Amino acid sequence: MRNKFTYLMAASVVVAGTVSDATAEDANDSLVEEGRYIARAADCMSCHIGEDGEPFAGGKFIETPLGNIMATNITPSAKYGIGKYSEGDLKAVLRNGKARGRKLYPAMPYPSYHTMTDADITALYAYLRTVEPVEKAPQGKTDLDFPFNIRPVMYIWNAIAIDDTQRSGSGDAQVARGEYLVDTLGHCGDCHTPRNALMMPEGDRYLGGAMVQGWHAPNLTSDPISGLGNWRAEDIAEYLKTGHAMDTAQAAGPMAEAIHFSTSHLKDEDLMAMALYLKTVPALETEGQSQPVTASVEERVPVSHTFGSIREELAEALAKADMPADEKLFLTQCAACHGVDGSGQTAAYYPALKDNGGLRRANAANLINVIAHGSGHSTLYRAPVMPGFSDDLNVDQMAEVANYVRTEFGGQPAADLTGADVDRILNGKPDLPFIIRYAAAFAWLGILVVLGLFVWVCWAIWRRRNKKVEPIA
Question: Cα 338 to the chain's mean position, in Å?
Answer without folding.
Answer: 28
